[in-house]
């Protein structure tokens, strides 16, 4: 009796575990892709006329800040090995490849006065190789690698950069747009601004907490809108593509169901995602940011809010500058309400005013911030649908890292299965998800973690001059999902 109950119980648990995976087919037109970014894979950092960018400068002048003093000087050597990269994409069978252009490879000074033809040729060749293999390019214009000469003039904290970006965007549409259906202006501007200009913890390493990140974000939003309008007015009728931005967020789960924690979690979403998204998908900055930052700024002795304000004209110029919504999602946090931090030094975290943590019950991987929370992506997608009027969404990054000790990356197989299962369930909830992108096609330079963190479906041997690529077992799983549009052995319509 007892044993029978035990066996029944075990079988029941196993069948639940299998049943948990959504067994509905993804729609026929659903797009699957894989992603990379220029600085993380290309190498050839000063070859063929490429200019220096802020990550070249940062890794060269502050090697101690990067794990093992790693740099992107060679990386995956994709500048020379792009045909191998496309062969890997072909092997996966994906519909599209998300990659980014290196601004300083095309424009070494950052400005359009000097176009570097070998850089242009590199991207033309890559795009041709993709098209010849039936793979659509999805191009990010800015994945964190600002030309250093623009940083020397203040970078994203200076107004001039808005026009410099707009001209770079126009040139990119002109050069490549006939072959590109999907564009992203910026990848994860929150990391650019908060880490790069607020906390100073990544390139260009400017620490100006509570000020730099807001000024940076203001210019990024204007630059995004300029690029979208340029496309809309000058290229849309002939090129027929779609332009958006991709903003990342963790899902913010209230730590308890108390009213205070629920409100704190919503505030956290507004301070992280809404900071960039509200102006584009609704209008202006979120009210809660405007109110809180203005109040704290005045109490700190400023005469105006540290959060810059948009004019009415700017608000309507930025609002609606998207053709789809791009999101990057990896993990979740628990959010609690806290007592107000006494006014003192300006600080984004005090402006937000919440306490966040991650549960010990959530599965870990080899990077500290990424706890595996597949249910979070379903909640996030539903929140995006409600908050931003049900846009068409492409998940432009989702993935997990390993430490390189094995090619049998079972955790990654489970990760993709479980996150995609929740994406499919969100679609049943009515969220309009049209595409999903695995981060990453291959192991690459994981910014300050160097080559110690490996997000790839394909392993790359960084000790080998050939940077040999080898499939991990997750390649077989993702390939099957892409081919069958199904996460389990057999799916229902
Ligand atoms: C993204 N988080 O960064 C970047 O777009 C990629 O270049 C990077 O390689 C990838 O994710 C993996 O890190 C993120 O703390 C960094 O939630 C941190 C977070 C999310 C994304």
Describe the structure.
The protein is globular. A hairpin with an 8-residue loop joins β14 and β15 (469-471). It has helices spanning 2-19, 38-41, 54-61, 78-92, 103-106, 117-132, 148-152, 160-176, 189-198, 212-239, 259-281, 287-300, 312-318, 348-352, 374-387, 410-428, 473-484; strands spanning 31-35, 96-100, 136-142, 182-187, 242-248, 251-254, 325-328, 332-337, 354-357, 363-364, 371-372, 393-397, 433-439, 458-460, 469-471. The longest helix is centred in the middle third of the chain and has 28 residues, at 212-239. By secondary structure, the chain is of the alpha/beta class. Bound molecules: 4-nitrophenyl beta-D-glucopyranoside. 4-nitrophenyl beta-D-glucopyranoside is lined by residues 37, 40, 187-188, 191, 248, 250, 328, 330-331, 369, 397, 439, 446, 455.
In summary, what is this structure?
With 493 residues, the protein is of the alpha/beta class. It contains 17 helices and 15 strands. The protein has an eight-stranded parallel beta barrel with strand order 1-2-3-4-5-7-12-13, surrounded by four helices. The chain has a three-stranded mixed beta sheet with strand order 6-8-9.
């Amino acid at each position: 009796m007892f044993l029978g109950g035990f066996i029944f119980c075990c079988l029941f648990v196993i069948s639940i575990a299998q049943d948990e995976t959504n067994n509905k087919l993804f729609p026929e037109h659903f797009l699957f892709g894989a992603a990379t970014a220029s600085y993380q894979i290309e190498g050839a950092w000063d070859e063929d006329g490429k200019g220096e960018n802020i990550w070249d400068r940062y890794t060269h002048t502050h090697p101690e800040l990067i794990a093992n003093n790693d740099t992107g000087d060679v990386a995956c050597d994709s500048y020379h090995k792009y045909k191998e990269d496309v062969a890997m994409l072909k092997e996966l069978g994906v519909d599209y490849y998300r990659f980014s252009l290196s601004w300083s490879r095309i424009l070494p000074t950052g400005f359009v006065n000097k176009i570097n033809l070998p850089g242009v040729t590199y991207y033309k060749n890559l795009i041709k190789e993709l098209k010849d293999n039936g793979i659509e390019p999805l191009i990010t214009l800015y994945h964190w690698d600002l030309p250093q000469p623009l940083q020397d003039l203040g970078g994203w904290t200076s107004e001039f950069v808005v026009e410099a970006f707009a001209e770079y965007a126009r040139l990119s549409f002109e050069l490549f747009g006939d072959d590109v259906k999907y564009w992203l202006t910026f990848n994860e501007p929150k990391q650019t601004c908060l880490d790069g200009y607020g906390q100073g913890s990544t390139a260009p390493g400017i620490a100006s907490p509570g000020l730099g990140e807001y000024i940076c974000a203001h210019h990024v939003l204007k630059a995004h809108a300029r690029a979208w309008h340029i496309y809309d007015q000058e290229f849309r009728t002939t090129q027929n593509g779609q332009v958006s931005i991709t903003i990342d967020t963790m899902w913010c789960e209230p730590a308890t169901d108390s009213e205070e924690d629920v409100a704190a979690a919503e505030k956290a979403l507004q301070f992280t995602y809404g900071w960039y998204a509200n102006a584009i998908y609704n209008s202006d900055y979120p009210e809660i940011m405007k109110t809180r930052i203005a109040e704290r700024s005045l109490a700190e002795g400023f005469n105006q809010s540290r959060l810059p304000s948009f004019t009415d004209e700017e608000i309507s110029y930025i609002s609606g500058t998207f053709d789809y919504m791009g999101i990057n999602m990896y993990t979740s946090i628990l959010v609690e309400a806290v007592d107000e931090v006494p006014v003192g030094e300006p600080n984004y975290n005090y402006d937000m005013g919440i306490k966040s943590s991650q549960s010990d019950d959530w599965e870990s991987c080899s990077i500290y911030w990424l706890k595996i929370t597949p249910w979070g992506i379903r909640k996030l997608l539903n929140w995006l649908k409600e908050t931003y009027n049900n846009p068409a969404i492409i998940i432009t990054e989702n993935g997990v890292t390993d430490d390189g000790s094995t090619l049998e990356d079972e955790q990654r197989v489970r990760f993709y299965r479980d996150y995609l299962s929740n994406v499919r369930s969100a679609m049943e909830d009515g969220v309009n998800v049209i595409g999903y992108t695995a981060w990453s096609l291959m192991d690459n330079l994981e910014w300050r973690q160097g080559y110690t963190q490996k997000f790839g479906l394909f392993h790359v041997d960084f000790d080998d001059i050939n940077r040999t690529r080898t499939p991990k077992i997750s390649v077989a799983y993702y390939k099957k999902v892409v081919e069958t549009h199904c996460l389990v052995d057999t799916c229902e319509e």
